Amino acid sequence: MVWSQKPTQSEETFNKIPLMIVLISGAFSAILNQTLLATALPHIMEDLHLEANTAQWLTSIFMLVNGIMIPVTAFLIGRFTTRGLFLTAMGLFAAGTLICAVAPNFLFLMVGRITQAAGAGIIMPLMQTILMLIFPVEKRGTAMGMFGLVIAFAPAIGPTLSGWLVEHFPWRSLFYVIFPIVVIDFIIAYFILINVTKQTNPKVDAFSIILSSLGFGGLLYGFSIAGNDGWASEEVTTSMIVGAVSLFWFIWRQLKLEQPILEFRVFKYKMFTLTTALGMVVFMAMIGSATVLPLLMQNMLGFTAFESGLMLLPGALLMGMMNPITGRLFDQFGAKWLAIIGLFIVTITTFMFAILTAQTTFTYLAVVNAIRMLGIAMVMMPVTTAGLNQLPKDLIPHGTAMNNTMRQISGAVGTALLVTVMINNVQPEKGVNGLVHGVNVSFVVAGITSIVGLVLAFFIKHSHPETEDDPEQTRTKETNRTVTES
């Protein structure tokens, strides 16, 4: 059920600040909830008697369901009002948070995470779509940068808060902290949120949603169980084949539909395709390491959950502070050199995580991670904004949905892949260094992925950030540029 509606108001007749505060608060809750689990996984594993490959599903399922829900948001944004859609999403998120808080076992916890993700999957692309619609092109970089600053506080405090809570309270307290924030945001949104997106009343294709779920879900499941069963096992092979075939069928069907659930024609814009690929590489590196490093510190190096969260804090804070700066730099110079320098930093620091030993210090991990997050900040928001700037306004909802879908799925696959590689390469007979060896190999894999991203960054057009309309509108764009320069 979608909540009641209020009339749509144009850009000129509403105050953007209250709207953005409400939306960002909702996104803050969703991201805080995701990062809270990073340092708490070992405690949950111990309490519920889970293996690492099973426990990582609590992170992967959240990103997977996000990846399933996000494609539908372009349809939902066209079908429902901003206010109704946001309230419904926050209602789902609140219900899922409560289920997680009282969950007696892993199954109930998974149900809660799925419900949370169903709501969170709507919030992020909805907010990005609104940002791209209410701000002009020349201010989008700064707007996205400020958004990144606020949102970065969630991953900044999430792991540290999680570590402190699980050291002093049961892990369920993590969800009791989130729940009142969500409820308060819901109540405020009910009274002040207005409608800014246009309703086009598209038709939904249920079969496309089924194919999307089977496609993305099958591939992720295959990556996850490969750690226990081996890559050549029948279950892994079957899951991968079902996922690949379903995903291919899903894409083919979207190209045939008049009103697709997810508009793959956005990939006709080459810069959007390139920047989306770069976003996937960076998100895979960020989310995967956020899962592996706490496991390394707590299960192998003997640090507490609080200490592992504290190690991640400087990097998250640095990323938050850099987002407004990179946003302004993007508005002035474009995304190319920001992305090249950022991915160079990410690549070097990723390989620095591939030479860890049992004697690796807290300081080394914290400093390298902080520099790594600086590189990620130079890439994430600028390439996202650069890609969306290429799309005409009617394709922006599909662009944000596609961008978020690809990023979340890459994060889910990246987490599953790095954990699988880590487990498959441990050498227990060599003691702690043998266990750390698995982590080193997983970061080698992540480093190779970063190199691919670095190479791709050189193909970004080195131009001032400016909307590229449809190919047929090139002449109009050139005329407008001439007038502006005059």
From TrEMBL:
Transmembrane segments: 21-45, 57-78, 85-108, 114-135, 142-161, 173-194, 206-224, 236-252, 272-297, 303-325, 337-356, 362-388, 409-427, 439-460
InterPro entries in the cross-refs: EmrB-like (IPR004638), MFS (IPR011701), MFS_dom (IPR020846), MFS_trans_sf (IPR036259)
Predominant location: membrane
Gene Ontology molecular functions: transmembrane transporter activity
Membrane topology according to the record: Multi-pass membrane protein
Any Pfam family hit: MFS_1
Ranges for domain Major facilitator superfamily (MFS) profile: 19-465
Lineage top rank: taxon: Bacteria
Localization terms from the record: Cell membrane
Keyword annotations: Cell membrane, Membrane, Transmembrane, Transmembrane helix, Transport
GO cellular component: plasma membrane
Sequence segments annotated as region (Disordered): 465-486
Protein name according to UniProt: MFS transporter
